[in-house]
Amino acid sequence: MASKLRQLQSKACQASQFVTKHGNTYYKQLLEQNKQYIQEPPTVEKCNELSKQLFHTQLASIPGRSESFWKELDYVKQLWKNRHEMKVEDAGIAALFGLECFAWFCAGEIVGRGFTFTGYYP
Predict the structure, then answer these.
(1) Of 76, 55, 81, 90, nearest in space to 68 by CA
(2) Which of 19, 59, 72, 86 could form a disulfide with 23 if both were Cys (CB 3.0 to 4.6 A apart)?
(3) Is-contact 65 76, C-beta < 8 A?
(4) Tens digits of residue pLDDT in 65-93
(5) What does the alpha-carbon distance between residue 82 and residue 91 come to, in Å, rounded to a whole number?
(6) Beta carbons within 8 Å of 50's beta carbon, 6+ residues apart
(7) Is the separation of the CB atoms in 46 and 39 below 8 Å?
């Protein structure tokens, strides 16, 4: 166990040295590649303006999202009406999707409780 701890410390030290050596270069390169997204001057007022633009842009996208939702719902209704014609593959995909949603729900519940498992354990 102690040898694994030393290996981990050694790797962490190597990673730290690598970041120290190459981090500044990577940072400058990243800023250079994305300079079209940087707002000048970087003031609080500019940040507030961008925040408001993002908020209102998201608000403006609601009708399009709503329309897409209703189209998807109509598609599901049509599938349900014609369920006797549904293939086994389609039913399997739907079942896997439902199972995935349930698993994400369970994972979210566990995370929401602070990664604790509750319940009856004999």
Answers:
(1) 76
(2) 19
(3) no
(4) 999 999 999 988 998 898 888 889 988 99
(5) 12
(6) 39
(7) yes
